[in-house]
Amino acid sequence: MRPADLVLTGGTVVTMDAARRVYQDGYVAITNGRVVGVGAARDCDFQAAVTRQLSDSAVLPGLVNGHTHLSNGISRGLFDELPLADWVERGMWPSLRASRADTAYEGARVSLAENLLNGVTTTVVGEFGSPNKDSIEGVLRAVTESRSRSVVARISVDSADDHDPSQATAPDVRESIDEALSEVRRLRGIFGSDLVEVVPEALGVLRCTPQMVREFTAFARAEGTRMTMHVASSPDERDEALRRFGKGSIERLADLDALGPHLLIAHCVWPNENERKLLAESLTGVSHNPVANLMYASGLAPLAEMIDAGVRVGLGTDGASTNNGQNMWEVMKSAIFLQKSRFGAAWGSAELALELATIGGARAIGLDEQIGSLEVGKRADLVVVDLLRPHLVPRSTWPSNLVYSGNPDAVRTVLVEGEVLVDEGRLTMWDHEEVVRGGDAAAERMNVETGLAHSYHGRSRWSWDD
Ligand SMILES: [Zn+2]
What we know:
With 466 residues, the protein is an alpha/beta fold. It has 15 helices and 17 strands. It folds into 2 domains: 2-61 and 374-427, Urease, subunit C, domain 1; 63-364, Metal-dependent hydrolases (TIM Barrel), CATH 3.20.20. Strands 1, 2, 3, 4, 5, 14, 15, 16 and 17 form a 9-stranded mixed β-sheet that branches. A 4-stranded parallel β-sheet has the order 6-7-8-9. A 4-stranded parallel β-sheet has the order 10-11-12-13. It starts with a strand and ends in a 7-residue tail after the last helix.
């Protein structure tokens, strides 16, 4: 018998390995945060310090949320029904001015709690570094405390081109390239770890100068790290890119030599055929965010065509003020159903959705050697799902039911790097009530400053008695 720290046994193990092996009565053995054995329970030759006997359960690789903004956990619902350009002007810039380390920390805790309870073990996070430099530190503190895996991008803008108001930037949010990169370096030094990677983000090809895109790209390549961007996100961006450059945003990125495996682009709703080819050839990652795209009427992204072209696609929620949940199960269901609306009911499958949300997302962020599947040598990031749920009946079709019911309620236990972060549906690192009450109090503080404290009642159609 070989020694292991922890063995999970008796559940159905979905490996997501290249052969997509599933062990109906399987085991996963973990030592020092890594998977050291996986297979049929009858073949398990590990002597574990701790054994978890699972019954009526499935074990899956942890979900990768390829795009979110964690601090937005406390600005949920404030900006509903605002077109994207209005949201940026009336919602995003004022919120950034009011965001401090303490409010960003509380917002991030709320979002992280929601992600973890959904079975998300890796989040790709975008947070502005300006105008309040300490705001992102609150997010990084929450991410560190959560002990979940994350790529945290420090978002910058520097373009003063306000020809198209939908693509303009607020002067006080702009910063210089040197300032931005020195902050990224500083934050990498303080918060970088096995679990947390701090990277630069040039928000977009229209809100950033070509110099910023080029220098951030050079930084990512030199450091062997990643870079993120919001690209081809809306019809406004598509039209303004055509006006400014005579081509699409992704073709523009190719001209700037910015595409490559270091880059993850969020949204990607409007890539043309040539751009899909460029993304695939350059191994650039894409986070497809179907629910956020629906909320902002941004268009139906060509997920099917991107997959056919061989683009590295994962799935993301976007932030809690632009989705509005952090529900990856809803995202998986929507991703497939939206393509069905384009190509007919035969398109896609629940299995495809689970692949995109695990190994697909890992590949999109260049972490597929470490996470995304349950294989020997990989990090032990996994989710245990309770199969005794009404929405999963009948048992014989549970993978389909898990995705197409769109309900995160079955997620019971979540491990990152072998550590239990959610146990029996409860967070292990934070008190549930403290997270919720802390988030509410921080939202109240921020909304008093932004003047949005009573915005909900102000727009409600109902007669409230206060
Ligand atoms: Zn975003």
